[in-house]
Design goal:
Two copies of one chain form a homodimer. The first copy, chain A, is built from eleven helices and eleven strands. By secondary structure, chain A is of the alpha+beta class. In chain A, helix 3 packs parallel to helix 4, helix 5 crosses helix 6 and helix 9 crosses helix 10. Chain A is globular, with a radius of gyration of 21 Å.
Chain lengths: 354, 354
């Protein structure tokens, strides 16, 4: 704090809420980066991708991601069961590895627990993680358990990368932008759950709630896309519009998304009607992959995904040299349209949800 | 729950507090171990050592440890400054890597933060981690930051192991037991801090408080001990008596510790008098190494540590085939003596602390 500020008495030390998550990470990372006068070596690690990446030997890359879920902030035990919570805690981290085009191998779990937490509930949490780990051939090793006033689940996943993998910063102007699978399902499921649909009674509701509760990270798709020569990618955790902006910033390109081309989850369209497309564009936690590459490479990759009976790849837009860091949404005629409102009341349940 | 229990109405589902940390870890680990009907593969990972261990390629071992510190449970911001907290959060994890005889390489940090947390305080936290990371040639990469009602610091450290390293389970009857450095300094420092000595005014107090606030993990010692042929080891985080019992259980041996041989921190003896030895035997957070091996191997290892100007190695006892899992404390004549009280009032400050 400068003397002037002190004398005027107006200065206040900045708080986390003032600088935001990304501003904070930037300031903290600067302290431990060798080129910023920090004292620690950063080695071969890259910050700012879905996972950290390093090369232990000349012919091998490893990736690592670590993330935490806090009760009341990231989940509510009133709408998420313990088994689904276990699945989802692991799925989010595994998806970060899939986003690098890497194979997740090992998961390490640290639990912050209240002393009155039920052991059976925690066994359910582990069963949920085990369900997904088994599907994806990931080994789980219990890390630490610590006492905590709120439930906290911290998961670290380590994976392996055979080739260059997928990077957020590897997009080039002229590349096409594509997504795996369909979008908005998780947001639709959350809207149903928040609207009181706890036990869905029809197939569409079941599909949407399942998409929210048990997202399936696109591990095999990520591996195959990287193998097919795609170099740019990330996973969709915060919604297509928000995540595309991150890719645009990292690759220093603009992005144009053709709204009518966004693949909307079928159950979402049937249940939410006109509002479905908005959910597909802004809804989070789909954990599909967003990738960019030359048209011919994407076409080949799509054919290989189809041949392997994996998720469908849909072109939704293009990377441009104009409007760096910005995402434009256009209609079928190429006219810019306003983004759908991203507020949470957007996620209210459809009329007739039951 | 059995029908009988239900009818009698006496059953209560067990809580975390009922089964304890180790009981809980055992139950949860069983769910993800392949030999226990769990669904996930555990691969080459070993649970129950200071860090998880795996072999990515036939000639390389990697180790990983993950641990969390929760405000109010593991630290109080009233007695621990942010910069020291950063050092200590990293030191605890690095010590788990040192305990395997491995070289720590990369640290990943996830912070749970209240929105009103000061950014400058967090920068201090990172500076503290950076201080230690620089000393030990460890790279720090900022992981995730999440919102949380209490401050939470989750650290993951990945390291490399050249040879077989140190394991808790590798002790054999007849091995001698030894510790690096001196014991009790951290416990003494904590006693001073809790007694209100926030700014120590003499060298002994400074030494003790520094031992508590900025413990120095024995990384170089662990590497050299493993290189010298020692196979059994762990770090001292919970106190000599408690940690020796873990080593005894893992190695399926009994342990006899000769109380007069325990190397008591000199400043502790001067400040705490007769109570110093008790603190050295039960006090936690010294982060020295506890190792076991044949006498000749230990002697060689001690000579190499001395030649490298590293911490002194002191023999404090012996592994036995009797009393498996148990630790006996004996006096100079080999007579069993009762352990010093391990209660926390043991840690009240010495009279005259100021």
């Amino acid at each position: 704090m400068g003397a002037d500020e002190w004398i005027q008495g107006t200065a206040r030390a900045p708080r986390v809420a003032d600088v935001g998550e990304f501003g904070l990470i930037e300031r903290l990372a600067a302290l431990v980066q060798p080129d910023a006068g920090g004292r620690a070596r950063a080695g071969e690690i890259r910050i700012g991708d879905d996972a950290a990446l390093w090369q232990p030997t000349p012919d091998r890359w490893e990736v690592l991601t670590t993330d935490a879920l806090v009760e009341g902030v990231h989940f509510k035990l009133t709408t998420t069961g313990w088994r689904d919570l276990g699945w989802k805690a692991l799925a989010e981290n595994v998806s970060d590895i899939a986003a690098m085009g890497a194979q997740p191998r090992r998961a390490f779990v640290t639990l912050g627990l209240r002393p009155d937490t039920s052991v059976e509930d925690l066994e359910d949490l582990y069963r949920g993680m085990g369900d997904l780990a088994c599907d994806l051939d990931v080994s789980i090793v219990g890390g630490d358990t610590v006492s905590s006033p709120v439930i906290m689940i911290s998961v670290t996943v380590v994976g392996e990368l055979a080739g260059p993998g997928l990077r957020r910063a590897a997009g080039r102007p002229g590349d096409l932008l594509a997504v795996t699978g369909t979008l908005g399902g998780s947001g639709g499921g959350l809207a149903l759950l928040e609207g009181g649909v706890v036990a869905p009674t029809n197939d569409d509701d079941r599909t949407l709630v399942e998409r929210h509760r048990r997202p399936r990270p696109r591990v095999r798709e990520g591996l195959l896309l990287a193998e097919a020569g795609i170099r740019c990618g990330m996973d969709l955790s915060d919604g297509l519009l928000g995540d595309a902006a991150k890719l645009a910033a990292a690759s220093e390109v603009g992005i144009t998304i053709r709204e009518p081309d966004v693949p909307v989850e079928g159950a979402l369209s049937r249940r939410f009607g006109e509002r479905a497309r908005g959910l597909a564009i802004t809804g989070g936690e789909d954990y599909e992959l967003l990738v960019a590459g030359p048209g011919a490479t994407l076409e080949q990759a799509a054919a290989r995904l189809a041949a392997a009976d994996l998720a469908r790849l849909t072109v939704v837009g293009r990377l441009t040299s104009e409007g760096v860091g910005r995402v434009r949404l256009v209609d079928a005629d190429g006219q810019e349209v306003p983004p759908p409102p991203a507020s949470w009341d957007h996620f209210s349940p459809p009329s007739g949800a039951a």
